Each structure stands twice: as C-alpha cells, then as structure tokens.
Amino acid sequence: MGRGPVQLRRIENKINRQVTFSKRRNGLLKKAHEISVLCDADVALIVFSTKGKLYEFSSHSSMEGILERYQRYSFDERAVLEPNTEGQENWGDEYGILKSKLDALQKSQRQLLGEQLDTLTTKELQQLEHQLEYSLKHIRSKKNQLLFESISELQKKEKSLKNQNNVLQKFTTKAVLEVKPFCLHSSEQLMETEKEKNNAIINTNREEQNGATPSTSSPTPVTAPDPIPTTNNSQSQPRGSGESEAQPSPAQAGNSKLPPWMLRTSHT
C-alpha cells in the first residue's frame, strides 16, 4: 500500500527548521547547478533565510546579467500584454523590484571586493571564490589576447622596417657603384694637378738655386781708387763731354791691392 501525499506545513521546532533549511538549500543549489550544466541553461537562484541571510547561485553568466535579462523580459512582456494605464499603476511595484535589484547588486559588489564577508558560510565563500577565479581567468585570457595582438603588430612593423632597410641598402649600393668611377677619375685628376704643381715648384727652386750659385761663389770685385793726376802736356777732357773716363791699367788695378811699402819697392 503506497504512501499518501505528505502535507507541507511550517516546522515548529526551530532547530529542526534550521537543519531542514540547510539540507534543502544545499539540495536546491545542487539541482540548480545540475540543470545549468546538463541543459546549458542560465540559472539564477536567490534564497533569503528567516534571519535575512542571502544565498544565491548563478550559472556561467553573472547574477547581474541574468537579473537584467529577466527584468527586461518581464518588462517587455508586461508592456505588450497590459495596457499603459495598468503599467502606470504598477510603477510602485516596479520601483520595489528595481530597489531590490540595486541592493542585491551593491551587496554582491561589496562581497567581490572582500567586504561584508562575516555573514557568509564556508559554502558561500567557496562559491564566491569560484566566481572570482572565473573572473580572473577571463581577465587573464583577455590580457593575453591583447598581448599577442600587440606582439603580432610589432612583428609586422619589424618586417616592414626590414623590407624598407633592404630597399634603401640596394639603392645606396647602386648609387655608390654609379658614383665610384667619377670619384676615381676626379681623384686621378687631382693627383695629376698636384703632381704638376709640385714639379713646377721643384723646377723653380732649382732655377733659383742655379742662378744664385755664380754670384755667391765669385768674390766681390774691389774698385780701384782714382789714379793720382800727373802733369802732362795733354789736355784733360772736360767733364760732361759724354765720353767715358780712361780706365786704370791692369797693373794699376793690381797694384791698388798691394800695400804701400810694396808699391815703393816695385817703382824703384
């Protein structure tokens, strides 16, 4: 004989009620996790105990995203099904829902920042840790993606600069090959010109040395003194007649170099 339906009612014993709440809560969270994994569904679960403690679960999407999606869906559905007058009458309810949503988001944000963790159980702390690890993993993945893109962009720039460098090197080599013969010809002309200048200077110096050698080697001629005038019958030519004066004889020129006592001996 099968068991009949069990009537559900509030458990009067406070301890039994707390134990039953903990067991059913864990089972509910487990079922929510299973349905999110097996059916690939977005699941959000929010439970408040009699003391006002919050217990929540969200699938891969964040709790804020699921609540926003639910709010948008219910608001759009109500806007279609209900007339505008009824929508205006429900503004009070809408405000209460939005206020609850804001409070939940603010509390979740504070918990993610490490605040107000005293009221959380070990299970809730583990769940919060998993959420933080998932967020950190997503952030690291995004950071690595940006780093890879930046490295790839730098590699492309490096390749482009190498190509430009090769083109400039080829152009420079070609220009050097074209200019080199002209430079060699110009340098040869300069060397020839310099050589001719040096030869001209050497020849000039040689000519000057050859012209200066006789004058330096020959002794300076000594002019003979004017001869003593002698009395003779011949008339002396007047000065300024235009004729050159009589030159002294070689003997006189030679005697002019002798001392006086030798001159006396020679005359005698």
UniProtKB/TrEMBL annotation:
InterPro entries: MADS-box/MEF2_TF, MEF2-like_N, TF_Kbox, TF_MADSbox, TF_MADSbox_sf. Residues 204-268 are annotated as: Disordered. It is found in: Nucleus. The keyword tRNA processing does not apply. The keyword Transcription applies. SMART domains: MADS. Pfam families: K-box, SRF-TF. It comes from the Eukaryota. PANTHER family: SERUM RESPONSE FACTOR HOMOLOG (PTHR48019). This is MADS-box domain-containing protein. It comes from Oryza barthii. The lineage of its organism: Eukaryota, Viridiplantae, Streptophyta, Embryophyta, Tracheophyta.
